[in-house]
Design a protein that fits this description.
Strand content: 5-15%
Shape: globular
Strand order of the largest sheet: 2-1-3-4-5
Mean pLDDT: 79
Low-confidence stretches: 1-7, 130-142, 386-420
Radius of gyration: 28 Å
Distance between the termini: 69 Å
């Protein structure tokens, strides 16, 4: 006979953010959760309540981690223990083996693995599965275009459902165009802060000085042109959520100031003498390999672990092609409504080409192609030639047509509406426009990468995009 106190009781010693995540995982299982205030309290709880599971978070800095785990095992030999190691304790991962019922996880936390460990320890069905049930996932969120029907995306939505109601920081990773912003907006829409501001900051769009002013604001007189105090994005997001897109592009100097906000909730405006305190949930996204950036010294290790408490990795579209027809249906409906069109469906031959294509631009590329089909009301025009793959060399710019010869009469000098200088300038401008357009298309409008390939500054590229009236609609 199972002791009723023993069954359904979990004790935890962890930081606030992790406790919130664990509560979300356990609530569908009707498991009671009690929190320990320190390691002595944890030992006392195990001694007196005999829980089914103990969860220990190493960031609470026990006096001796191995001795603590050994003491818990001696108090209750059948106690299942989940140890979650903070990054500073990860080197201990392979040396802790005090009990066969001890499971060790390391940060950044994989919620799927944590759910599996809880399931193993309790003998109940997966908390993630039970929290969602087996309903059609399209009914679970306002962002149907994000969800799809693939197993990988179902798993991501399960994680989103558990993390959203907490204040835990989430790092969203994936290639450009996979839908990282939509994940962030879904986390926000399902959070307890959904009635508060959602502020997005594109970190790659501004140079360091402007980005600092954008994030933290400035005081009157802080620099030339600062005629009044201006609050920053963190102040606008107070009590709400801030989404730092392309966080891997932040300069090392600005990373230190961002770390202070994440640690203490405080920062100073540019030119300010006092600190501003905010309560803001931080979500971040990147398409960069931040582990590599940390190893190369371009991204702070402490900041990486601070933003990467829970990681969500979005698979590219080529790994979830079963979603293509679902996404096409959504985009057709979206753009029909937006442009007052009535394009009902794509032909089978077009869909077949979509399935055969590898989509280097991911969902964003698919969205843009469907948009052009709807706007032009014609699949053949858009698909006259296949979209270029990453490894296909760019076509050379088309040389300008030669001006027609100007007729002369009676041996008189030709009327000079052209000059070698003006023709050369026009040809150079046309060639430059074509090259920039092709580079942008190849990089799927990753302007930072395009600027690198063109060997010009990011600011110069933005100027030329405006000058030549280029856009990413095709």
């Amino acid at each position: 006979m199972i002791d009723p106190i023993h069954h359904g009781h979990v004790t935890i010693w962890a930081d606030e953010e992790l406790v919130g995540v664990i509560q979300g995982l356990l609530s569908p299982l009707s498991l009671a959760l009690t929190r320990a205030s320190d390691e002595l309290d944890l030992i006392q709880q195990v001694r007196h309540t005999r829980p089914l599971l103990a969860i220990v978070h190493s960031v609470k800095k026990p006096t001796n981690l191995v001795e603590l785990l050994t003491a818990l095992h001696r108090l209750q030999s059948d106690l299942a223990i989940i140890l979650i190691l903070g990054h500073e304790h990860i080197p201990l991962q392979n040396s802790i083996a005090v009990s066969p019922k001890l499971k060790v996880l390391a940060e950044p936390l994989d919620l799927t693995a944590l759910s599996q460990r809880i399931m193993e320890a309790t003998g109940l069905s997966s908390p993630l599965e039970r929290s969602l049930g087996h309903d059609d996932l399209r009914n679970q969120s306002d962002y149907g275009h994000l969800l799809g029907l693939s197993p990988k995306m179902k798993e991501i939505m399960m994680i989103i459902n558990q993390v959203a109601p907490t204040n835990i920081k989430v790092l969203i990773r994936g290639e450009s165009g996979t839908g990282k912003e939509l994940v962030a907006r879904t986390l926000y829409a399902r959070s307890l802060r959904k009635d508060k501001p959602f502020i997005k900051v594109l970190c790659a769009a501004l140079p360091e000085g402007l980005l600092e002013s954008e994030l933290f604001g400035y005081e009157k007189g802080a620099f030339t042109g600062a005629l009044r105090r201006k609050p920053g994005k963190f102040e606008f997001a107070n009590h709400g959520t801030i989404f730092l897109d392309e966080i891997g592009e932040i300069s090392p100097g600005l990373q230190a100031k961002l770390l202070q906000v994440l640690q203490d909730g405080e920062f100073s405006r540019v030119g300010g003498e006092t600190d501003v305190k905010v309560d803001t949930r931080v979500l971040a996204a990147t398409n960069k390999n931040l582990e590599k950036a940390v190893a190369e010294g371009t991204f702070r290790e402490d900041l990486f672990y601070r933003i990467n408490v829970v990681s969500v990795h979005l698979p590219p579209l080529r790994e979830r092609k079963e979603e293509i027809s679902y996404l096409v249906e959504y985009f057709l409906e979206k753009f029909n409504h937006q442009y007052n069109k009535t394009y009902q469906r794509l032909s089978e031959s077009t869909l077949q080409r979509f399935y055969e294509y590898d989509w280097p631009g991911n969902v964003r590329e698919l969205e843009n192609i469907v948009k052009r089909i709807v706007v032009l009301d014609n699949e053949d025009v858009v698909l006259a030639k296949p979209p270029p793959q990453e490894d296909v060399p760019l076509p050379s710019p088309t040389p300008p047509a030669k001006p027609a010869p100007v007729a002369s009469s009676g041996g008189a000098s030709p009327t000079s509406t052209y000059s070698l200088k003006s023709v050369g300038k026009e040809a150079a401008s046309q060639a430059e426009r074509d090259l920039i357009r092709n580079i942008l298309y190849q990089t799927h409008w990753n302007r930072k990468r395009a600027a690198e390939l063109l060997q010009i500054s990011y600011k110069a590229l933005l100027y030329k995009i405006k000058k030549y009236d280029l856009n990413n609609d095709g």
